[in-house]
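Sample entry follows:

:::
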Amino acid sequence: MSWKTFQKDCPEATELHKPVTDEEKACYALISDLDHVGGHVPGSITSKKYLRNEIWSLISYIGAPSWFITFAPADNKHPICLYYADTKETYSPEFRSSNECYRLIVKNPVAGARFFHVMVQMFIKHVLGVDSDHPGLYGNTSAYYGTVEQQGRLTLHLHLLLWIAGCLTPQEVRDKIMDVNSDFQKKMVEYLESLCIGEFLTGSKANVSKRVDSKSKLPEYHDPTYTLPNPPPPPCSSDTDSCSDETKAWWIQFENTVDDLLLRSNQHTHTVDKHGNNTSYCTNAKGQCKRQFPRDIFKQTMVDPKTGALNLKKGEAWMNTITAELTYLLRSNSDVTSLLSGTAIKAIVAYVSDYITKPGLKTYSIFDIIKSVFDKNSKMMGGDIKRKEKVRKVFTQILNSLTAKMEIGSPMASLYILGNPDHYTKHRFIPFYWKGYVKEVLNIWEGNDSDEIPDLEHVSDKVVINKSRGGFIGISKVSDYVYRPVMYEDISLYDWIRFYKKTRKNRMPKKKIGDATDDPKFADSDDELNIQPIKTQKSVDGDTQGEKVQHL
């Protein structure tokens, strides 16, 4: 089928917004040039586009994620963050007033960024079980991808997609749940109810509030958001009553502490004026809550017999679903969502990839900034400075102005200054510009003109002129694959992009008298490109650690 036939039969598949006028084409070209330069600038609009591409490529490579986890460490309360912000060298946690805690953190945003990075690292290692000798809380972690975002008060929080090894696809889960002869439904519900809770552990909100209120009046009571978690007692070596009593006491303390934390950190509230109008910050123009509170409650987990959809048990309408162990460890607000259906996965991924990686600036604002930079540099652009230097200065000013307009807070800026990542994953990604390869293939097929395809109309293969042995040769990435060595002729383009790299060919040392003629370092090579495969290490279970994934 030719491109024209495909375009005629499937117009919806090829209908994209394209520049029409010369002015629009010039604007698109300018944005493309800015992306090329800004991709190396942390926190830039282009770097966020890369994050979105990486998320989608990881989903394409591994499959649908299993969990979506969000948490925001309380930097203004946690003892470790307050220690980082203070000037004392010795760690000696003490209870401070709320005003003193806020002052410490405001004066030292680097402490907040440093604390956030430590908390995320500990979460990935100990909760997810990555690079640890124990499985993760949610299962054996296959992959994860977390993006860092600043909240309204400019503190940092994490949105993370989690993949579990061996997890079934949403369709497979639905099919097994609908099977009346299988006990899969029961086991699935037990697994989800143990990790995804939408209510208090010890009773209703009214009962928990009453208990916390009475305990807070005792002199020995301390707000759990200002404390570190108490570790559980060691496993009992014998069935003694004292050991069993100690374990039971710790679990009682665990449940009470989690409920206290949920009451303080995980409750969504609305404010109402004297006329009964909702004046909360989270309401839209129609007076509806943007966070979709209050939410539906379910007295028990229910399965839709027609669709196989699961509605997990949820007793509190004003609380997100959480994992009790995670709340106990983090001592702050968190949100844990199980991605049970294709619809839920699409909604979550769209949220993470589009909202979390949103550019923060409207298109008209970007062009307004570009115009102002050009206006300020009109004399310089008409001067005698070399064209290369003019372009460098103008593009630098544009990128700096765009970054300034994005209003990055001091904790996020400190994160970049410290060299900490703005996203967390164990996979490495290789940018893959596919248009040149597609054009090369289409040009070979008779009756297919690549210039008729809008995406390939102005695509040209870039060739690097290199001097070798007194002559000049042209090298391009497309040609590297087309004319790859014979030993790699069975390698697909996908594996070629993932696993191979090109290095400079080593100069041949001159032989000296007495050198062995069979010395391997003097061996001749027929590989002009000197392409070497990247070695990958396999883990015990066969998964590739630090795998490479290309994104489009």
